[in-house]
Amino acid sequence: MKPMEHLKQTNYWIKIFAVALVGGFLLKWAVGQNTTINEYLEAIAKTNIVVILGIELFDKVADRLDYTSWANAIYQKAGGKGDASWLGGLLLGGIAFFAVLFIMAGTMSLTFSTYTPGVLLAAMTYALYIVAPETGNAELLLILWLIAQVATGGAYLKDAINVLTLFKTFSR
How many domains does the chain have? Predict the structure, then answer.
């Protein structure tokens, strides 16, 4: 394991555990929904390139600054004792999930039945990618997006690179 100058070892393992736990429950849910690989790849391929590049940029900044330290400062300022900086990562992951879901589906309805399982799975992938530690030095999400473009034969590439289609829903 490489040395982590900016990320506390405890935060690193808490983030790994949280990503694994949430990701595992999400995959278990997706299997129960009979989500197909096609639905998942279609959702990723339809994701606008601006969103992908924004997530990659945000992830680079988040990994460099260890965004969880701000949560610890707020927690201690509010009178809390101990180290709760890991909470910031989980909070940020939740915010990222709903923000990406809004951008991808064009609606912020909290009834998950309005979203396809593929869209929910893709949004959770993006959110977990942001929360996961040490992902800011590789463009893994961009590579996944390119793989989805190849796998779908570029069927959604026209809309995915058009900035004007950024807030269109997938349900059309």
Answer: 1
